[in-house]
Design a protein that fits this description.
The protein has about 210 residues and is of the alpha/beta class. It has a single domain, classed as 3-Layer(aba) Sandwich (Rossmann fold). It is about 35% helix and about 15% strand. It has helices spanning about 10-20, 40-50, 75-85, 100, 110-120, 130-135, 140-145, 180-185, 200-205, and strands spanning about 25-30, 55-60, 95, 120-130, 150-155, 165-170. The model is unreliable at about 1-10 (pLDDT under 50). Its EC number is 2.7.7.18. It catalyses: nicotinate beta-D-ribonucleotide + ATP + H(+) = deamido-NAD(+) + diphosphate.
């Protein structure tokens, strides 16, 4: 007698149960313009990722942020290339390009809603500086956004670690570096070595960025 083997039928309910029982991934998101990315970004991501035991921290360049600095427009492709070079060599780090690919104004709520739909097995931790926590009440659809992500605030001198919204606070070395200051130095012909990774500095020089 010949027996025919048939594949078991996996229902939607069974898939949901498997997903519910599987270990959930813990992923940090560090969004920004990264114009350019600097050592402060890397230190922040490293400290949050290791202190919270995250599986990965994704750097997420925006396409057009709601409050873009129009004085220094740098193409998204250049910012993506600099981020890719900045995070090389650290297995904890990765890059998320959904906002760049989508284009237009980047609202965190829309992005996180999309990512949660694409990766229902993942818990996201959105990383912001302590100075930005005070602005959370002004964020687009913030009351809905806090249901999608865990906010992580990186403590900064002069800013009280407090918020009406749920925020996990993390200590990190206080590195006073800003992309604005780096652009100013580059425009003036000053050195920015040790402020940005060597690979990022090489790209800036090769692509002749921030000269005007």
């Amino acid at each position: 007698m010949t027996h025919t083997l048939t594949q078991p039928v996996i229902t939607v309910e069974m898939k949901e149960e498997i997903l519910d029982n599987a270990p959930r991934k813990q992923v940090g998101i560090l969004g920004g313009t990264f114009n350019p990315p600097h050592l402060g970004h890397l230190i922040m991501a490293e400290q949050v990722g290791t202190q919270l035991g995250l599986d990965q921290v994704l750097f997420m360049p925006d396409s057009t942020p709601p409050h873009v600095d129009k004085k220094h427009p740098i193409a998204a492709k250049d910012r993506v290339a600099m981020v890719e070079r900045a995070i090389m060599g650290n297995p904890l780090f990765g890059i998320e390009l959904c906002e760049v690919k989508r284009g237009g104004i980047s609202y965190t709520f829309d992005t996180m809603k999309y990512l949660k739909q694409q990766h229902p097995d993942t818990d996201y931790y959105f990383i912001i500086g302590g100075d930005m926590v005070a602005y959370l009440p002004k964020w687009h659809k913030i009351d809905e956004l806090v249901k999608l992500v865990h906010f992580v605030g990186v403590k900064r001198r002069g800013y009280t670690p407090h918020s009406a919204y749920p925020v996990t606070w993390v200590d990190a070395p206080l590195i006073d570096i800003s992309s604005t200051e780096i652009r100013r130095k580059l425009k003036q012909g000053c050195s920015v070595r040790y402020l940005v990774p060597e690979a990022v500095l090489d790209y800036i020089e090769e692509a002749k960025l921030y000269r005007d």
